[in-house]
Design goal:
By secondary structure, this protein is of the alpha/beta class. Helices cover 40% and strands 22% of the residues. An eight-stranded mixed sheet has the order 2-3-4-1-5-8-7-6, sandwiched between helices. α2 (61-74) runs parallel beside α3 (96-110), α4 (154-165) packs antiparallel against α5 and α5 crosses α6 (193-208). The longest helix has 17 residues, at 167-183.
Length: 243
């Protein structure tokens, strides 16, 4: 089975990668160039393949979703087909879900994809279309628009987990959070909750691995009990369905 997760940026890609490795036993395989994505990595679990791709932002997700659908339509062999297409983004503004839902519906219709029911958040949608050989193929789409509460964000889960392990790092994280909460009084730059959460994450790692210590950063991420994140975001349990 072949699956693809489309997320917003590189940080999301990395955190989802480590979640899938630790919670669902996927193994990193290689970086991969596919669909023109900004960044993408391929993971494997026995014969199953998972590609996680960073689109470059929420506004770019529909474009790459369309490219993924076109890839399925143009496929000539079964191994080229994405059996599962997952979109992961967060609800940072009122109306975000309805906007994403509308755009996803438009892309499905524009690519002549048949689907059985109205798109709902956190529910698999069965889809079908003709492939490059004019054979009928079936695949699924899952839209995960995460209700954006700070405790539910991957970055916040990670910082909380680090804080529980080390009191010194906890103090750094707390001071960094206070700095971010107070630095942009006019909200010129940190004008969305998502930006604030990412800034807190980036401030900690700028201190902790300030010299681009890639191996050290990897070790920090790998040592987190990512399987516990499922208890915070129930939706992520559906990612077990990719095997």
């Amino acid at each position: 089975m072949k699956s693809i997760i489309l997320c917003e940026g590189g940080t999301d890609l990395t955190l989802i990668q480590y979640f899938m490795e630790k919670a669902n036993n996927w193994k990193y395989d290689r970086h991969i160039k596919i669909l023109g994505l900004d960044q993408s990595k391929q993971l494997k679990n026995e014969e199953n393949i998972l590609i996680i791709g960073a689109t470059g932002g929420c506004s770019e997700i529909p474009k790459f979703f369309s490219k993924t659908l076109k890839s399925n339509r143009n496929s000539a062999i079964d191994t080229e087909i994405f059996n599962n297409i997952i979109i992961v983004t967060d609800r940072d503004e009122v109306g975000t879900f309805e906007e994403v839902k509308e755009k996803i519906s438009k892309e499905l219709e524009a690519n002549d994809i048949s689907y059985q029911k109205e798109i709902e958040n956190d529910k698999w949608i069965n889809c079908s279309c003709l492939d490059g050989k004019k054979d009928l193929i079936n695949f699924r789409v899952l839209l995960l628009v995460i209700p954006f509460e700070e405790k539910g964000a991957l970055e916040t889960f990670l910082l909380d987990a680090i804080s529980k392990k080390d009191s010194y790092d906890k103090e750094i994280i707390n001071k960094g959070n206070i700095f971010v909460d107070n630095i942009d009084k006019e909200k010129r730059y940190l004008n969305k909750r998502r930006y604030i959460t990412k800034a807190k994450f980036d401030v900690y790692f700028s201190v902790r691995t300030s010299a681009e210590q890639f191996t050290e950063r990897q070790n920090i991420l790998r040592n987190i009990n990512w399987e516990e994140y499922e208890e915070i975001q129930e939706s992520f349990k559906k990612l077990k369905d990719l095997i």
